[in-house]
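Hi L.,

You mentioned the student needs an example of a multi-chain input paired with its predicted structure. This one should do, with 658 residues in total across all chains.
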Amino acid sequence: MDAERSAGRAPLLEVQNLVVEYSVGGRTIHAVSGVSLEVERGETLGLVGESGCGKSTLGRAVLQLRRPQSGRVLFDGQDLTAMQGEALRKMRRRVQLIFQDPIASLNPRRRIGDIIAEPLVIAGVKDQKRREQLVHEVLSAVGLDPQLVAGRLPHEFSGGQCQRICIARALVLNPEFIVCDEPVSALDVSIRAQILNLLEDMKARFGLTLLFIAHDLAVVKAVSDRVAVMYLGRLCEVGPSEQLFAHPAHPYTALLIEAIPVPDPDVRPAESVAVGEPPSPMAPPSGCRFRTRCPRADQRCSEEMPELREVGPQQFAACHHPLIGAG
Amino acid sequence: MSEPVLLSLEDVAVDLPTPRGNLRAVDRVDLTIGAGRTLGIVGESGCGKTMLSRSILQLLPKKAKLSGRVIFDGQDLARLDPERLRKLRGKSLAVVFQDPMTSLNPVLTIGTQLIETLQEHLELDGQAARIRSAELLAAVGIPAAEQRLAQYPHQLSGGMRQRVAIAIALSCEPKLLIADEPTTALDVTIQAQILDLLAREQRRRHMAMILITHDLGVVAGRTDEVAVMYAGRVVERAPTPRLFKNMHMPYTEALLAAIPKIDAAPHTPLPAISGRPPDPTRPIPGCSFSPRCHYASSLCHREKPLLGTAESPDHQFACFHPISLAAGIEA
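Structure written out for the whole complex:
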């Protein structure tokens, strides 16, 4: 990779106190409520949480596809929230996005070669020969035969192959940072492993930094250096993957880990680990948003919002009564 | 299996005409389930697991052609007249689908849908059906059950809707419940709750259950027996603990290995299964898994292995080169 990329000591991405709200029928959905996180260069940060926790909104707000109400998104030291028009478009070449549904994110009427060349056209690569060459390189990189693939239409491919094509499109501008939003959730188990391995290979080969959003903790752990857990618009816990899974500090992280079905008949599923359902993001609970489902909640949890604080080496939890590092 | 057989599938096949030719969705499946037992059917998209469940319920697409016999409680469902079939479905044979929003009627209240089922099958009067409905909602863990009866499906969360669908399925005390990917659309904490609920009600009512899923993790702790399907066929079938400890079919092994494990270190490369399942409209001569199998020999590409047993009569597999077995199948 070029010197410029590895030069900076500062994190590649810094999200500071980000707030995103949607207005629906006169009511406000508090999708992201004051989230701060950092992604170091070359790192994969996993972001987990259940539906409606705001993880996808956060991913989109990072790319400014959804403008936040407040907060800052610093990419390589520059605040994306303050950027407009051409400056933002230039910046976006360095950050890309991969979506959950690979078939829906490809235009069904365009040939694969054109779909992947589109970012190059937008970025102003005028030489058609050069574009074709780059498209071929990137298709080969994701394990597809450019000769066979470039002239065909998306419907001729399976879900797994379409996700390879989406990854190729995200890579063609040689970005530094990719937000992967549930990239394997729509895929079968046998195909999922292929795509996860491919993402890991591409990360090493192209020197990428990833924000990997998913609801499946095992999938997130497989690819992430650090993991952030989100619940109802707030971060509960952030920490190194191994540490966080071995010693969760936030009761919600512990609950998520317990709820994973383990493919081993000797591991009896814990009975009713999870109580209740997440409250509506239109009316989040006061204090700690998890308190209505938390076995450790007390008076203080309903009155005082817990801030992220260090509970272990590089591990932070927003809880008044953490499972580790209390006091 | 000491329990009397409740359901037996004998040489069941489902053919669907498509523009690309005949698609054999289910290919000569034999399965039995005893009263009060749980059977997990595991496989990836397109393996035929849903078509198999639909052939039990006789809810196949109109153009589909079913052959073989589906014997439920002594009657062949494939040859039952529509009126008697209708009486059976919803009463002794119930189903819970993946998406509760499409199985519930959006313009009727929860109460109406429950009461209708109870009146139809159990001939309860309005008041008795209403009381029973509220009891059922409470039994499946819906708070303020009485008030919920007046609500519409869209007013409930996904997890609550699935609870309602389960309450309707359980309302007439079925002998067999088919749960087709009942938790795939739900979050992981809600999934655990729904699976707990199904297991509890299954035990309490001594009801047989077929749990259809793509997730080996879901069947591991919650079924007596597992059948693994690939390309329309059952390729391995065994009591659950036995299957996980001593699997013989390379596909089962590969499927289990491909799942990311929560206790594995980050960045551990996953043993992926290369390629993808064969096109069901273009059947191949040998074992349908052979193009993706590490152990495949020329025999596997040439001949289709039949489901057979080796050292244990309750462990069936369809493979010429079974894992952890010296000898092959004794047909």
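You could point out the following to them. Chain B has twelve helices and twelve strands. The CA atoms of residues 27 and 233 of chain B lie 5 Å apart.

Best wishes,
N.
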